[in-house]
Amino acid sequence: MPRAGLTTDRVVAAAADLADETGFEAVTVSALARRLGVRDASLYTHVRGLRDLRERMALLAGGELIEEIAEAVAGRAGKEALAAFAGAYRAYALRHPGRYAATQIRVDQTRVAGSPALRRTGEITYGMLRAYGLGEPDLTDAVRLLRSTFHGYCALEASGSFGAPRDVQASWDKAVDALHVALENWPRDGSGG
């Protein structure tokens, strides 16, 4: 029988909070049970195991991230939308390191298909990029470029790996400017490769 007051949503939210505090990889069913003051077995009423818990954390965090991005890009297009998207992405990654790490795991595609928040991620991201006149397969390639750039930058910044005296924000702004130029001048030879 589930513990009074403990729901799947509360369990997942507590796991996400724990991830932000201790790191995504440090979240285990046992660590979460200790945090919630219950036995490990009590959590299996709410999650099937560690993989299920982590996927649920990824879905939660992905939904939070896209909500922040959607709010930032609303009413914007082109470079202004790109800068807002990038800024919201980076702010979330730095503010919620454990949650952000959860967004980087591979989630079962049936779960992704069933997640309105993650479907919205595609809609917002592709919508922003269509303003640059991109269609497939260029849209997919551009999404991969943005995600790689944003993730790489955020991961390096979070780990303190930028040692040069140049302001990290100034470098970020320059990277976003460079992405804008790349998107405006996207190679469109139609070969897909």
TrEMBL record:
Residues 5-65 form the HTH tetR-type domain. Residues 28-47 bind DNA. The keyword Transit peptide does not apply. It comes from the Bacteria. SUPFAM superfamilies: Homeodomain-like, Tetracyclin repressor-like, C-terminal domain. Gene3D superfamilies: Homeodomain-like, Tetracycline Repressor, domain 2. InterPro entries: Homeodomain-like_sf, HTH-type_TetR-like_transc_reg, HTH_TetR, MT1864/Rv1816-like_C, Tet_transcr_reg_TetR-rel_C_sf. Pfam families: TetR_C_33, TetR_N. Keywords: DNA-binding, Transcription, Transcription regulation. This is WHG domain-containing protein. It comes from Streptomyces ardesiacus.
